[in-house]
Amino acid sequence: MSIAKDRTYSMNILQRIDGLVAGLTINNSPGAASNPYLIRGLTSIGTFGANNVSASDYDGDTALNPGTNRSPLFVVDGIPTNNISFINPQDVEDITVLKDATAASIWGARAANGVIVVTTKKASNNKKLTINYNAFTNIQGRPELDYQPYMNSADFIQAAREVFDPVSYPFEQLNAYTFGGSGIPPHLRTLYAEYMGEISSEVANARLDSLSSLSNRSQIRDIWYRQAIQSNHTLTLSAGGVKHSIYSSLAYTDTKNSRPGDSDKQFKLNIRQDYRFNDRISAFLITDFTKSKALTKNNLDIDYGFFPYQLFQNENGEHISIPYMGLLTEDVRADFEARSKVNLNYNPLDERDYADLNSDVFNGRFIGGVDIGIFENLNFLGTYSYIQGARKSTNYINPESYIVRSELVQFTVADTPDDIPQYFLPDTGGRYTEGHTSNRNFTIRNQLSYDNSWNEGKHQLSILLGQEAQEQLTESSSTVVRGYNPLLQTSLPIDYAFLENEGLENPVMPNFGTISTLTDDYFVQSEILTRFTSYYTNAGYTLDSKYTFNGSWRRDKSNLFGLDKSAQNKPSWSVGTKWAVGRENFLSGFKNLNFLDLRATYGITGNAPTPGVSSTYDILRPQTDYVVLSNRIPLTIQTPGNPKLTWERTSTLNLGIDFGIYDRINASVDVYRKMTDDLLGQLPLNIFSGFTSAIGNFGSLENKGVELTLNTKNIETQNFSWTTLFTMAYNKNKITDLELPGEVTTGDQKVDLAYLKGFPAFAVFAYDYKGLDAEGDPLVQLQDGTITKEPNITSADDILFMGTAQPVWSGGLSNTFSYKGFNLSINAVYNLGHVMRRDVTTNFSGLLESVPFTDFANRWKEPGDELVTNIPYYDPTGALSGDTRDIDYYIKGNQNVLDASYVKLRDITLSYGLPKEFLQKINVKDLTLRFSVSNVLLWTANKYDIDPEFQFSSLSRGVRALRTNQGSVALGLHFSL
Amino acid sequence: MNFKTIYSGIISFVIIGSLTVSCDDDFLEVTPKGSLIAESVYDYDLLLDDPLLREASNVTVPMGDEVAAVEPFYSTIELRARRLFKWEADIYNSDQTPQELQTSMTSLYSYNKIINEVSATVDGTDELRAQLEAEARVGRALSYFILINYYGKPYDAATASSDLGFPIIEYSDISSTDFARNTVQEVYDFIIDDIEMALSFLPRTVKDRNRVSAAAAEALYGKVLMFQHRFDEALVHLDLALDYTANTQVELGIYDYNEEFLDGGVFTPASPFFGPATVNRNLNKEVLYDKGFVNSWSFVQNEFVINPETASLFNSSDLRLNFYSDAEFFGFEPFYPKGMLRKMGPLFQQFGIFLPDIYLLNIEATARLGFLEDAVSKLETFRANRMPVEDTEVPSAIATDKDKLVTFIFEERMRELALTGYRWFDMRRLSVDPDYSDLVSYTHKLYNEEGQVLETYELTPERFVLRFGDLVLSQNPNLTENP
Known about the structure:
The complex is a heterodimer.
Chain A: H1 2-6, E1 24-26, E2 37-39, E3 73-76, E4 79-81, E5 92-98, H2 101-105, E6 115-120, E7 127-141, H3 153-163, H4 171-175, H5 186-195, H6 201-212, H7 217-224, E8 228-240, E9 244-256, E10 263-276, E11 281-296, H8 330-340, H9 348-351, E12 355-375, E13 378-397, H10 402-410, E14 412-413, E15 422-423, E16 430-454, E17 459-485, E18 490-492, H11 496-502, E19 504-505, E20 515-516, E21 523-543, E22 547-558, E23 572-579, E24 593-607, E25 619-622, E26 635-639, E27 648-661, E28 665-677, E29 680-684, E30 693-697, E31 699-716, E32 720-738, H12 747-750, E33 763-766, E34 769-772, E35 778-781, E36 787-788, E37 800-804, E38 809-819, E39 822-832, E40 835-837, H13 888-891, E41 897-899, E42 902-913, H14 916-921, E43 926-940, E44 951-954, E45 957-960, E46 968-976
Parallel strand pairs in A: 3-6
Antiparallel strand pairs in A: 1-2, 3-4, 5-6, 7-8, 7-46, 8-9, 9-10, 10-11, 11-12, 12-13, 13-16, 14-15, 16-17, 17-18, 17-21, 19-20, 21-22, 22-23, 23-24, 24-27, 25-26, 27-28, 28-31, 29-30, 31-32, 32-38, 33-37, 34-35, 35-36, 38-39, 39-42, 40-41, 42-43, 43-46, 44-45
Helix pairs in contact in A: 3-6, 5-6
Chain B: H1 3-20, H2 24-28, H3 41-48, E1 67-70, H4 79-85, H5 99-117, H6 126-151, H7 184-199, H8 214-227, H9 231-245, H10 257-260, E2 287-289, E3 292-294, E4 304-306, H11 308-311, E5 324-325, E6 342-343, E7 348-350, E8 353-354, H12 355-368, H13 372-383, H14 396-399, H15 402-417, H16 422-431, E9 443-447, E10 453-458, H17 470-475
Parallel strand pairs in B: 1-9
Antiparallel strand pairs in B: 1-4, 2-8, 3-7, 5-6, 9-10
Helix pairs in contact in B: 3-6, 5-6, 6-7, 7-8, 8-9, 8-12, 9-12, 12-13, 12-15
């Protein structure tokens, strides 16, 4: 764990163990939001939407999309915890990752995905006062905007000219007002003006040429982004007496993200006290407070995919108005402004200051424990925790903001410019939203333990018996007022009953058909309550310090709502044995063998469906998706009942060997097989049953793997040492059964699947792409050898299986060198054997309204091009889903599935500790300086400069997220008195 | 170990023991906020208020023979609408669930739940329980009436007992599988059984357009009988329905366009782009039971319009023309050739129990039974709401000839209900009508903006039914697909 301790440049404790634990995959891709941490592969699919889109499309917010949890269970100081971001990594003493059934089963339900156990620091007894100061600054830099290869102005204007089709897309249609639309960008406006004869070709060309010569790239980079920097200062004091010892830490973290104007500051105070009343009674108390304040400005969500000629500031630094970025075309805007008397201009840089989102978080973590020796060998251990968090967020949107102005026009009636506009929303003041979220979790655990050994240690017995109750409560509410004056704190009343239910007829800017309706945002409240009660026992017996047997049993029950009692009476249990072979006499001849242990465990763990979401009975919710006129709020079916619902069940068999030789090499090898049955997820249903899907048990899967951890002391002399830690994990995942909505018969169905029986989870399928035909349309090859462009022709058998998007081989290699006070650690991580989809241009029809990637220029343009390119022809009239061709043959073709293997230098850290002799003179225990560089890509298997860590799929199309935090540089200081 | 230790050990054991005792079940039996399991009769009552039950589909709109398609708009729209217009066999790709099936099936789940469960509630009154069950039955009947007209052959008494219809589903159970089709006759019997079982428990007065009344049930009964060509019985129920509408707590009737387009009328202020002002569906007095869909072809979509033949049915003084435009959406100049007209409102198209439909069915039944004078008088009263009184008269040559009158009534239905999806249902029943099958046109035309015909599509009789599609078939091996 020393590497983890030296990785002091991040506030995420899990990032610190990246590459150090065999079998733990840390996925940094933004697309992996639903499973950032996987232990030994995926064991739960959960709800991923009815149409089986890839995992990355699934919104990972477990509060909204429960079903099941894919993440490991986090246990902090003995307490299962959802949010570990409140833990200061500097306070962490140890992190353990539990993978096999015996280790996991004592944590019961939710342990099937593995358990990550975090222990925080405490002070030892009889120690003098120690003062530690730790600080770091991590310069993370700007996101790499040019990582996404969007076209520049000249190429984009050129492309837009080439594919412009004013006949299929008449100006009137584009110019018409539809709610949710936007204005017409200058290049298109110019092209239409030329087409309609408003301006001559010369004028049009001159305008387009001047757009071609502009570039907003440096403005986007400098105005909309800044260098991200995170810094942290932690001061810890610890001291211990005979009866009482105390560890306390005070921390301040300043996180500057890459968006200008945003800020995020966090203060922490953590105190752990340990009491020893007498030989038989001891107790501890952790009090941990976190307070943070953050501000988010109304920055434009922008990257180089925005029109590359559009500047935001002129040479004098004045903010440029860009009304077409609003909702309206210029003709419509002129009409709406004239009638409503409200300015509908849009200036993105001004808007940045018009809506501030402030949040203020306070979190308290209190854990107390008592250890009482009742009889000799029999102890009572009580652990009690209470965690309370409160978050207040306020969002004040200025009256000057486009949001408030355009909303006002939606609720303004004025049929002609001569009418006096009638405003149905306040025409003064802003919009103010205030939200509160509070969490309250408690855990009570009472445990009896019996430990005894007799016959001089020949027999060792330990028995544990415990009971636990947990509650997690999350409440949130939010309110919105309009006509808000932040100084006087007043707001103006509005007629929701009319504007929401009936709607305003024929306003200037209707938001639904010919009327405008207001959403019922005035009061929103939600509450999620989860309760568990558990009983567990655990026994271990060791004979001769050589033969160990253990067993565990645990039963969890969660809230009964919507669930038959019989559906959850599923205990988890495990058995295990360990044989310290190294202690056997027959091996005593092997002097260089330090130890040799053989382990075997088998057990069952579970994963519970979230109460109230998946159920045995029909669950109804208030129907608020529709406008209703009466004062009754209807009910609708939220979840249809599934009488056959049960818990997910994972059995794990683990065989392991640990050995140490020559006092230098320690290794452990584990082989495991995990079988998960009754997978919970969106069970596809027969349409005639009423629903297309519901949460149910829909399959089973299997994970097999090997893990190796190798620790070597390569060189150890008085002044120099070199140690290596190598971890490697191989995981083979296979879905052994999965019910899909009907049989997968067509290729178009199969190519979008991420989960299919007989294939690994996160499977990637592709068409057998065969380039373009003489008309520039994509060709696909069928199994019988036919090459065709006909849509809907492929059958499931014509689809190629390309691999899985989850790494098959993963691990890390860490080398640590130390010479006198210098310490150099080099940590690399690798992920091998998986595949990803390349992000290629996807728009090949319609009106070109977005900026394509540079490869768009190489598309098929005239016969003969099919020999040099495989990028299809852009067919403006080719409709949305073609009758004659299918662009997906290209986009989802096998040529666009790439090997995603990579090796990345996670970090290099150089530290220097000042000589002890020198420090002693000035009464300092330790003074260490650190310098580290993190995230340097060493090698990738693909040749398109794609960083697989930032590549994900959405709707079976590759997406390249902006690279952040690469090559960041951190400076650190440790000082101890 | 001394006595003191043992003694204090026992004490702490007792204390700890009392701490660990907890009531498992009380602790776990909490109801999460924001949702519930139906127990009270009032829960079922609120479930019947669910607007989801009143969603219909736009699937029949592009299939009507009054529709023409116009370029350049047509070739850029979604495939489904083009396939419907071309009367193609497969409307969906093989991996798609038919939209029109999904909406109906979800409603059926709720109706079956109410029918099977509400009688087990203990609070409230028995009258309320019976009424809720009755409402759900009529809701189920309406859903089945729509479904049988999507998937089953048009009702023909001679073949109905062998023609394949739609699976009859009476229970809500998501784990059920492998459905097979009942016959058209069985489905019609099922619909009528539901209505008859419901009638005596329904409210005699109309209190709420969102809920089924006796009037709505009688109207549906009459309509179903019309589709079975049982005109004499149909007229009894259609008359009864209109009688019941007199007994109402909400405003019911036919809007007089002569009034409503004047200042202060419900269709004012009219917008040049969006058409006449919208009448909220909950306040629309022509709605007896509210169910419908968003009709984008009377709003922003430009590709489907009424064809020249349909446009020529309108007298220039017909005020229903206010709902049509000769320009594209947001266009300022006349665009459509050959007199074709784009529909302009209402955005929300009624497809439940809609009084103009019921009145015209009533008139049709009257005429078909030979009560020509009566039919003409009712028709003229109806027309007086749609045009200046001086133009309402039915020409005497028509008024005295049954066949001409019935033809005229179907033209009136076109004038009243063009581009709304009703025509497809009329085409189906006319196609098997011994007397009036010639009123159906089997051709769709695609025009360019100069008015030249670019493509012509033919409707073949087997396409009067929709297909279930590959996805549904793969789930139900015993389900027979339509040809």
